[in-house]
Amino acid sequence: MLDGKVALITGAAQGIGFAISEAFAKNNADVVLTDYNPQVAEVAQKLNVKYQGNIIGLVMDVTDDDSIQKGLDKTMDKFGRLDYVVNNAGGGVLKPFAELTNEDFDSTVNLDLRGTFKCMRAEIQLFLKQGSGSIVNCGALGSVYCPGGFGAYNAAKNGVMGMTMAAAVDYADKTIRVNCIAPGLTKTLLNPEEFVNKMVPTVPMKRYETADEVAKLFVFVASEATFMTGQTILSDGGVSAGLK
């Protein structure tokens, strides 16, 4: 149980980010849900009632330095500490490579890669002052196995994996761990059901991953894997091992 610990999750209003937030709440952590969507406050309140914990929602834009800093400052003002961060916010344009426009590429990289960089930088600065902390970034199976149409998204998520390693090495001796989890085929409201059903036959386990399943892994890596840093963990039903 994570009594007295504080976790902050970006992109938490729905999908995997919400599931991760709920998984932390189930383990008795205090949880800060952040999202650019103002509904995050309402979502957090519902979790707070369900788990009777200290759970709050903050509007935060991961592409904006001031917004990120305000979110971290409000967290520290409320709880006085921050133990775990999950940089989950992301998304992107999915098109065949030659059909991507400059705007498609730039917007995807700005959210997934640059946004994660901005968050990590501010979080690490906070953890250095605090003396410890754990970051888990959200990668993507598409970085190692690509069904097509993921050019911009894969470029960004590969960058996230690289930043994870770089930051992990830089701060391994400062009691700051940085890891990455790459979910496989996961059914969420953000993942079209038609696409999920189409891809299920390519998964050796012949099913999709639920958001609740992968959320447990985020909590474990953030809080329990205390000698792990710089790693990208694939949770993919065997896809990266081979096709069946």
Automatic annotation (TrEMBL):
<protein>
    <submittedName>
        <fullName>Short-chain dehydrogenase reductase SDR</fullName>
    </submittedName>
</protein>
<comment type="similarity">
    <text>Belongs to the short-chain dehydrogenases/reductases (SDR) family.</text>
</comment>
<keyword id="KW-0560">Oxidoreductase</keyword>
<dbReference type="InterPro" id="IPR036291">
    <property type="entry name" value="NAD(P)-bd_dom_sf"/>
</dbReference>
<dbReference type="InterPro" id="IPR020904">
    <property type="entry name" value="Sc_DH/Rdtase_CS"/>
</dbReference>
<dbReference type="InterPro" id="IPR002347">
    <property type="entry name" value="SDR_fam"/>
</dbReference>
<dbReference type="Pfam" id="PF13561">
    <property type="entry name" value="adh_short_C2"/>
</dbReference>
